[in-house]
Amino acid sequence: MRTYMIKRLFFSLLLTISVARAEQPIIVWDIHDVLLQPYDQFITFLKFPHKRDLFSRISWPMLKTTGALLSQHLTREVSSEEYIHMAIAHGNPHLAELIVAVANAQRPIAGMRKLVQELHELGIEQHIGSNIGKSSFYRLVDKQKHPQTAAIFKYMDLDKSMVSEFENGVVIKKPDAQFFERYLAKNNIDLSQTDVIFIDDRWENVRVARSMGFDGIVFKNPNQLRTALRKRGIAVTVPPFKYSTQRDKHPLRNIARFYKPAAIS
């Protein structure tokens, strides 16, 4: 009888753990200004080795197309993939290469790598849902080329992640509902059965995600995000200090600093 009760208690405990794991939400991350922030982009441009060839291939039609893309920044988010396709379409592969290099001149926002790691240790599945293009994304997660940023993505399931895509000359990206529909279809997710928390720094992207059944959080800083996650029952800690969200500013005269690897936060 005693052995029977112990076995029953043991299997009840296993069932409780499995149910708890099944009820864990999935977190979908935006990348820019949520996980990463721009870093050394001007220096990346200065160090680019093919500037002469790049400028020799600039044409008036390409300038007009670039101007049109830049003007669209006033009303919507433009993906780096759109600039890359523009450069290739106008026969300027070095410009496409420079766009990828500058777009990927990023480093983790202080405190975010630790938060992502903490969520991973809690058993929470994490994906990317970003308007970054495939060309930039697969370089950004390469630990040989970008060890700083790759250190944060190692906790993500990249196969289940979603980035912007070109299809029939049109880029599919946030806040288009089709972006979120493709993410759900790709991973066979039913939002009535699975909680998915979408985290982005742009309200419009979060608004559309919420309208489709996602839980959405507008990112402001790591402490605010930790508090929002705790309100949803996720047992992350809240540090006794505040992380600064101000981007680093360095005098350009200190050029030597830009040739040294920055510490991973």
Question: What would you say this structure looks like, in words?
Answer:
- With 265 residues, this protein is of the alpha/beta class.
- The protein has two domains: 25-37 and 109-231, HAD superfamily/HAD-like (Rossmann fold, 3-Layer(aba) Sandwich), CATH 3.40.50.1000; 41-104.
- Helix content is 45%, strand content 14%.
- The chain has twelve helices and eight strands.
- Strands 6-5-4-1-7-8 form a six-stranded mixed sheet. Strands 2-3 form a two-stranded antiparallel sheet.
- Strand 5 and strand 6 (170-172) form a beta hairpin.
- Helix 4 (60-72) runs antiparallel to helix 5 and helix 5 (80-89) packs antiparallel against helix 6.
- The termini are far apart.
CATH third-level topology of the largest domain:
Rossmann fold
Number of helical segments with 4 or more residues:
12
Low-confidence stretches: 13-22, 246-265
Kindly give the count of domains. Answer: 2
Strand order of the largest sheet: 6-5-4-1-7-8
Main sheet: strands, sense, barrel: 6 strands, mixed
Structural classification: alpha/beta
Helix content: 40-55%
How many DSSP E strands?
A: 8
Report the mean per-residue pLDDT as an integer.
82
CATH top level of the largest domain is Alpha Beta
CATH superfamily of the largest domain: HAD superfamily/HAD-like
Report the C-alpha radius of gyration, rounded: 22 Å
Question: Helices and strands, in N-to-C order?
Answer: HEEHHHHHEHEHHEEHEHEH
Shape assignment:
globular
Strand content: 5-15%
Question: Under the CATH scheme, which architecture of the largest domain would be assigned?
Answer: 3-Layer(aba) Sandwich
Tell me the distance between the termini.
Answer: 55 Å
